[in-house]
Every structure is written in structure tokens, then in C-alpha cells.
Amino acid sequence: MNTSYKNLLITCCSLILVCCSCTDSAQTGFKKLVWSDEFNYNGLPDSTKWSYEEGNGCPKICGWGNNEKEYYTAKRPENARVENGRLIIEARKENFKGSSYTSARLVSKNKGDWKYGRFEIKAKISKGKGTWPAVWMMPTHWEYGDWPHSGEIDIMENVGYMPDSVFGSIHTGAYNGMKGTQKTKGLKFSDLADNFHVYALEWTAETISFFVDDQKYHVFKNEHTGTEAWPFDRAFHFIFNIAVGGNWGGKYGIDDNSFPQRLEIDYVRVYSDQK
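User: That's the sequence. What structure does it adopt?
Assistant: C-alpha cells below.
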């Protein structure tokens, strides 16, 4: 969710949204747990695993390149905290440092970075028009250039005006929303904001596969044509956040009466296929 491509993405959602395009269950090769946060503590997120991206994106790219309306805070429990065994990322309607909304954007950069593996996040997402929760991954070192050339992996995204839909996406130099070539598929559920689901990604040297509750619904394959199509041979890290508004999330406005809204995460687990 790194640029204004979401404005283009929504125009093709009706073509790519699927109820079940692939029904394979998850692969079994990734068995060794190599990193996790079970959130079995209270207070601020574990600083040995999580950092914050703070601000509104200015002066470099205001609104984080998407015309988002929130200010991401740091070490502020109103926006990011652990309680009752869950990580809570909370978007709020409040004036803060020139913005009308606050939220949090947690990253594992330089504390949890991986090339290949199985990545599982058990989460319950926010709701309300104008919200844009996401669980995604970005390159730790931009070795192939600025976005989208070094890649982006969106494990789970939702926009509040489509409360029954979640999407998994890949962005590269060859395949991205600026060109209208992004690789995206989605699934429909009736209970995304009411119940937890396990959003998972399996990433190898040949494929990146997306799952919800072990249901595979999207596969992106290595074409072996170079890094413009496949920059996914470098380490990536997690980003968890709720954006407010933006080119995609705010396409139909923001319902201020719906706030506060939460992205709740029960656990994060990373598995390797190494014995």
C-alpha cells in the first residue's frame, strides 16, 4: 500500500475478487518456527521486535504517498498497545500535530527480516468507511531501486467500504498499480471485523502464495526474467497499520462516527523450511 496505485486497483476489484480460485491447503515444508510474537504481555509492543514509523509522511511524501489523513504516533498506547494477549493498533478521530486522525504503523525492520518462509498473522480487522487496515511486507534494503522496483508484498488489505473483502497483492517494477498490472486477488467473508482469521504467505525462490485460513487463493510465480518482475530474492520485513482515508481507503469518504477502530492481532509467526 505504498503509493497511489490503490486508486487504480479498486477499478479492477470486481474482476479479480474470487470466492475460491484455488482450494489447496497450505504447504507442509515450513515447519521450523524461527520468529514470533504471541503478545503474552501487556503494555507497549516489544521493542526488541517492533519499531514505529512516525508522522504523516511529510516532508518527503505527505500522506505516505497515498493522500492518507492519519498521523502515525510512536510509543503512544492510545494507538498501539498489547492487552489481553493481543496487539491492538487503533485509529482514532482526534486532532494531533496538524492531522485529524491518529493511528500506528509498526515495523519489524532490522528486528525481523527474512528471505523466504511461511508468515502467519492471526488477525481481526477494523471496519468503517475510510479505514484501510493492512498486514504487508517491504524490502529492508532497497537494492533494486525505489518503489516499486524493489518489490512489495501485501499479505492482507481491506478497505472499510468493502467490509466483506480482503486482498493479497504483489507489486514490482513490471507489475504495479501505476501501470495497472499489479497482481491481486481477493476473498469474501462475512465476519472479518467480528472474528479472527489466519492470513498467511508462503514465499520460496519460485512462488509467493497467499492463504486465508489455509485456503490458497493467489499464487505469483517467478518468471526468471529479471528483478523487474521478481525482486523477491532479498530480505523483507513486516508492516502493520491502519491508514485513514487515502486514494483507496478514502475513495468514498470517511465515516467519522465509526471511530475508534482496531486492527487486533493474536499472534505473528514465521516458519522456515530449514531443519
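Helices lie at 6-9, 13-16.
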